[in-house]
Backbone:
């Protein structure tokens, strides 16, 4: 009866494991590529939906150890964002992509494929290559990048990018010399000045240099550049500004991705660069498993208007102190159909909403109430040791289906969002953690 | 601040509508 009322969900444990094949998109009206927007598939970095899936297998022990590493790295990212929001003015970005290379960690981030540049086709190329070419006889070079709504400067590794100054990547290195539409940003240009804290002087030939210092000490440096970016099947963003990295030392980028697509609120981000065309509106859907696909959309194509009634809305807050980050106000949490008994004042601080922070963090008073309600609904399962900051974990060995209490987040204005089962557990642990203080 | 992490965003369509100062959500979108 509770399940029917939406208070609980019954999940077959088999559905929580990635399949060996890509189940593709769950398509609703309007959820298809459109000439009026930029629409691109979004996938886990590894798994059957990735264009270049990994063949590596992980043992259960590997997964447990790597999940702890992933959560530790995520905490560093969260700490860094909190520092930025207190007014710290350094130029570090909140990257917490792990320097370790386990399978589990790689599943904590989401990637999309973009085409960069225009490479002239030789006449001897195959029919397939010709089919992919642009009308002017050139084609883009596919690059797999992490999407990050918590940073502002996009970049990819560019030739030359020797190891170990750079990291291995699955796609061929982008070669500016082979692109007919590539240009370095001149040092004296407005685009170079707009780099602000990410500007790193000029090269000997007066090309604008960029540098990003990530929160964990990693860096990416190189030449700030223009080239055409193709996202999805229809649209080309001409003169996209991005970092052409020739070194990303100390790197947190052991992922074999080409770089990062920045969707933050700062002036350098893709969102701001495409403001005229797409009106500073973008959306994404993160897939529940590595065997399913999500999407990234820039703009609002008219055919998506029919979806509007199915959206709930809450005010989006921004801060001139840290324009990179997007924030919302959480007002209440409902567990198994019952609101937590938490004074509204506990939720008075905002929450950063971010595509690359993995675990949600709540004020301690709210977290403790959530944990108590969740544990009380999960007493039929064996408890398991904590994993890093995740202190509510279970041993589901031998369990064929899990009865999970529903969790809904209620945002300012009454927007109530029911979490998917994939949004409640990370591995076998409740995927929430507390902040350091209710007063943060 | 707190955080709304990417685990909790799974299967939601999350719309960042900057000019309207609105964040929109749609469940079971992917």
Residues:
């Amino acid at each position: 009866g509770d399940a029917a009322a939406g208070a609980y969900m019954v999940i077959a444990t088999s559905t929580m494991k990635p399949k060996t094949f890509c189940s593709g998109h769950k398509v609703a009206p309007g959820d298809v590529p459109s000439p009026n927007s930029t629409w691109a598939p979004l996938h886990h970095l590894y798994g059957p939906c990735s264009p270049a899936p990994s063949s590596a297998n992980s043992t259960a022990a590997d997964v447990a150890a790597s999940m702890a590493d992933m959560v530790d790295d995520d905490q560093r990212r969260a700490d860094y964002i909190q520092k930025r929001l207190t007014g710290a003015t350094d130029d570090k970005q909140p990257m917490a992509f792990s320097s370790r290379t386990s399978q589990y960690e790689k599943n904590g981030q989401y990637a999309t494929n973009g085409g960069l540049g225009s490479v002239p086709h030789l006449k001897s190329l195959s029919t397939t290559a010709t089919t992919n070419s642009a009308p002017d006889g050139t084609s883009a070079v596919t690059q797999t990048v992490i999407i990050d709504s918590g940073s502002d400067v996009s970049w990819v590794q560019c030739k030359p990018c020797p190891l170990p100054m750079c990291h291995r990547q699955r796609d061929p290195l982008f070669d500016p010399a082979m692109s007919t539409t590539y240009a370095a940003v001149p040092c004296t240009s407005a685009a170079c000045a707009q780099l602000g804290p990410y500007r790193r002087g000029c090269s000997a030939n007066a090309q604008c240099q960029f540098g990003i210092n990530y929160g964990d000490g990693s860096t990416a440096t190189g030449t700030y550049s223009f080239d055409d970016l193709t996202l999805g099947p229809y649209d080309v963003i001409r003169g996209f500004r991005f970092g052409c990295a020739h070194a990303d030392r100390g790197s947190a980028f052991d992922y074999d991705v080409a770089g990062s697509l920045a969707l933050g609120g700062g002036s350098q981000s893709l969102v701001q660069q495409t403001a005229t065309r797409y009106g500073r509106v973008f959306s994404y859907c993160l897939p529940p498993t590595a065997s399913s696909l999500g999407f990234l959309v820039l703009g609002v194509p008219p055919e998506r208007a029919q979806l509007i009634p199915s959206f709930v809305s809450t005010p989006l807050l921004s801060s001139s102190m840290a324009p990179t980050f997007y924030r919302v106000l959480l007002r209440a949490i409902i567990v198994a159909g019952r609101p937590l008994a938490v004074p509204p004042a506990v939720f008075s601080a905002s929450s950063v909403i971010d595509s690359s922070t993995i675990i949600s963090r709540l004020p301690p008073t709210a977290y403790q109430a959530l944990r108590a309600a969740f544990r009380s609904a999960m007493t039929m399962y064996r408890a398991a040791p904590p994993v890093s900051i995740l202190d509510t974990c279970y041993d589901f060995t031998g369990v064929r289906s899990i009865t999970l209490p529903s969790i809904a987040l209620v945002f300012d204005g009454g927007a109530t969002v029911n979490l998917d089962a994939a949004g409640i557990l990370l591995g076998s642990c409740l995927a929430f953690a507390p902040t350091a203080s209710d007063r943060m | 601040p707190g955080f709304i992490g990417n685990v909790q965003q799974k299967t939601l369509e999350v719309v960042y509508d900057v000019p309207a100062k609105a964040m929109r959500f749609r469940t079971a979108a992917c």
